[in-house]
From TrEMBL:
InterPro entries: NAD(P)-bd_dom_sf (IPR036291), Sc_DH/Rdtase_CS (IPR020904), SDR_fam (IPR002347). It holds the Pfam family adh_short. Keywords: Oxidoreductase. Signal peptide: none annotated. PROSITE patterns: ADH_SHORT. This is SDR family oxidoreductase. GO terms for biological process: carbohydrate metabolic process. Belongs to the short-chain dehydrogenases/reductases (SDR) family. It comes from the Bacteria. CDD domains: mannonate_red_SDR_c. The keyword S-adenosyl-L-methionine does not apply.
Length: 275
């Protein structure tokens, strides 16, 4: 096998799990993260288990940073075969307090209370940049090395909210819809040069990003957490390990004729009408 996989956001909850699973299948892993320490921790775990990996501090929003990372990866592991665009997330400034606007909300005099009219475009921009530009730019930097080789692919991380927006998070929903759309665009664009482009669309996974939205400090479900479980036919949150099967399949030869898809991994959430 020995293909080189570059993973951005690799110090995070979901992508560290994918990195370890790919390393167990003998892929060589380059872990890129803004938080270099987090990437190093994952890299050490991979090495202890006998895998090959390196950790690199890199910012998916800075081309020079990614180009620097690319030359380190090339030198230490070889040119990139597979890119997983895992860095992403939401921002509180792009989030409303309530799911629905009520007439009386406009009378509330509290800076912490945010309706649509209070959303800060800096927060919205942050979310669009991180999720969309943070997927497009690493693809630009790393896919160049894939041209002319075989078995190369890109795996983006979209989300449930790309299909139907989730309440309260218009920026994140729009940005992930853009990631799914870009996945199709790039799949078509790269179809003649042998680079497949696909995405995972995870449902709800309890991670640091959403823990306070979905659970209370006593570990109980919030109202939003309860609603999600009620709307998920399989009746639970996803575990990071639930993403491994689809990732191995999309990165491997078994999916050679698959490009331009986003796979929902959601316990049936997207299939359920609620009744
Ligand atoms: P996480 O916050 O645990 O990991 C994200 C990682 O990205 C962090 O290690 C962070 O340091 C890194 N990062 C942030 N900005 C960066 C930048 N500019 N450059 C490089 N690295 C940067 O998040 P997670 O829950 O593991 O999510 C991983 C991906 O899955 C994200 O794209 C997220 O939007 C998506 N996703 C998560 C869920 C969920 O329920 N957790 C659901 C659907 C999609």
């Amino acid at each position: 096998m020995n293909k080189v996989v570059v993973i951005t956001g690799a110090g995070g909850v979901l992508c560290s799990t994918l990195a370890k699973a790919l390393a167990k299948k003998s892929y060589k892993i380059a872990l890129l993260d803004l938080n270099k320490e987090a990437a190093e921790k994952v890299s050490n775990e991979i090495k202890i288990q006998g895998g090959t990996s390196i950790a690199i501090g890199a910012n998916v929003l800075r081309k020079e940073s990614l180009e620097k990372a690319r030359s380190i990866v090339s030198k230490e592991l070889g040119p990139c075969d597979i890119l997983i665009n895992g860095a992403g997330g939401n921002h509180p400034l792009g989030t409303t307090t309530n799911p629905f606007l009520n007439n009386e909300d406009l009378l509330i005099d509290n800076k912490e209370f945010k309706t649509f009219f209070d959303l800060d475009m800096e927060g919205v921009q942050f979310v669009f940049n991180l999720n969309f530009i943070g997927t497009m730019l690493p693809s630009q930097v790393f896919a160049k090395e894939m041209i002319g080789k075989t078995g190369c692919s890109i795996l983006n991380i979209s989300s449930m909210n790309a299909y139907t927006p989730l309440t309260k998070i218009p920026a994140y929903s729009g940005a992930k819809a853009a990631v799914s759309n870009f996945t199709q665009w790039l799949a078509v664009h790269f179809s003649k040069v042998g680079i497949r482009v696909n995405a995972l669309a995870p449902g709800f996974f309890l991670t640091e990003q959403n823990r306070t939205l979905l659970t209370t400090d006593k570990g109980k479900l919030t109202q939003r957490g309860n609603t999600i479980i009620e709307q998920t036919p399989m009746g639970r949150f996803g575990e990071p390990e639930d993403l491994i099967g689809a990732t191995l399949w999309l990165c491997g030869e078994q999916s050679n004729f698959v490009t331009g898809i986003s796979i929902p991994i959601d316990g049936g959430f997207s299939a359920f009408s609620g009744v």
